[in-house]
Write a structure and sequence with these properties.
Layout: H1 3-26, H2 33-40, H3 44-50, H4 56-59, H5 63-73, H6 80-94, H7 97-109, H8 111-133, H9 140-163, H10 170-182
């Protein structure tokens, strides 16, 4: 990664952290983009260049890219649900849980974010399908079904984890939900 790319990523992370702090302290609807810009020490234009909408300040992450990379690196054997489940687990293990918890709690409690969260789930499903079908395009329907099922399991584990204020281990909750749904562990 070039110096410029690292600086952009650092700026994006600083903006998002300040936004999440303000949203948690003041409430999502009560916080303006200008307040986020001031807290992050950037202009409102810089905020919008990095996050086109206010919702993106909460919803943006690299989960899609990480998960797609993870699934592409896994052996192409076994049921698709197991491949996707292992990719989700690997990505959850890499997640910054402090930011993830705040983001999830905001998504759950803020109606404006709930619908956009579903959009991000759809993008993640498409990332899995694209990664799987890169090797075998005939798997598209099966990959869509498997990705959707695994994301349902992931969603349940994430909601439970967020409701418990991040106390249980998120990877363990995912493993439990996966085993309850598919009848075996990863």
């Amino acid at each position: 990664m070039s110096l410029r790319d690292r600086q952009r990523a650092d700026t994006r992370q600083r903006i998002q952290r300040q936004a999440l702090r303000l949203f948690s302290d003041q409430g999502y609807d009560a916080t303006t983009v200008n307040q986020v810009a001031d807290a992050a020490g950037v202009s409102a234009m810089t905020v919008y260049r990095n996050f086109p909408t206010k919702e993106d300040l909460v919803l943006y992450d690299d989960f899609d890219q990480l998960a797609a990379t993870s699934i592409a690196d896994l052996p192409q054997t076994g049921p698709l649900t197991d491949r996707i489940g292992r990719a989700v687990l690997a990505t959850l293990d890499q997640a910054s849980t402090d930011l993830l918890l705040v983001r999830l709690q905001l998504m759950i409690s803020t109606p404006a974010l709930q619908a956009r969260h579903l959009d991000s789930q759809f993008r993640l499903q498409n990332a899995f399908v694209t990664a799987i079908c890169a090797d075998d395009p005939t798997l598209e329907y099966a990959a869509q079904a498997a990705a959707s099922a695994c994301l349902g399991v992931t969603h349940v584990a994430l909601l439970h984890w967020a409701a418990a204020n991040g106390e249980p281990s998120l990877p363990n909750l995912f493993r439990e939900a996966f085993a309850a749904t598919f009848g075996h562990t990863l």
